[in-house]
Amino acid sequence: xxxxxxxxxxxxxxxxxxxxxxxxxxxxxxxxxxxxxxxxxxxxxxxxxxxxxxxxxxxxxxxxxxxxxxxxxxxxxxxxxxxxxxxxxxxxxxxxxxxxxxxxxxxxxxxxxxxxxxxxxxxxxxxxxxxxxxxxxxxxxxxxxxxxxxxxxxxxxxxxxxxxxxxxxxxxxxxxxxxxxxxxxxxxxxxxxxxxxxxxxxxxxxxxxxxxxxxxxxxxxxxxxxxxxxxxxxxxxxxxxx
Length: 242
Prior knowledge:
The chain has helices at 2-20, 25-31, 80-89, 203-207, and strands at 44-51, 55-67, 72-77, 96-99, 105-107, 110-112, 124-129, 132-142, 145-152, 157-163, 168-175, 181-191.
């Protein structure tokens, strides 16, 4: 009897694998960090965000739409408050358009190569993000998890981990020359088939009071040095925790 129970227990993992179905070559390559993950609309990642201005908050980044012609994903966020913050100070660089081939994000109207697929140890490249020009190096690659360390000419540090198993960032920390963490992102969970509203707001949406509808056109991110539309603003938005 004990032998029969042992055999049954040993069979359970194998049966579970059969029920899940075989993985595709693209899924295997993505998990190993060889290619950009094959996202689908509705995929989501729950992050804890920490910034000096706003403290700690949690929200889902969600694949809200896709554009096969332009080969871009549209990444939104489940929190309208976080979307408003991004519209004002651009503290979340991953909202908006993301390229399908390399998960490049847009800044200053140009796709920025934050991730270097396939990840190889000691590989280096450059990109612009958060108003800084970065030189990045992959310092570790282990079972589809790649660790990247980047420095800017202004003395900022950026460290992040790409996890092929979950298809996106495991964590990210941006530190300024004074040693202050300007942004920390930590993955708390992930899944598929997000249900609910997804937000992406522009500064012009706030200016025109049209941010009640989450179904907005996706545009480039921008820095708080000035919106590319050139529109004047007479509104100051801030948050107080009381």
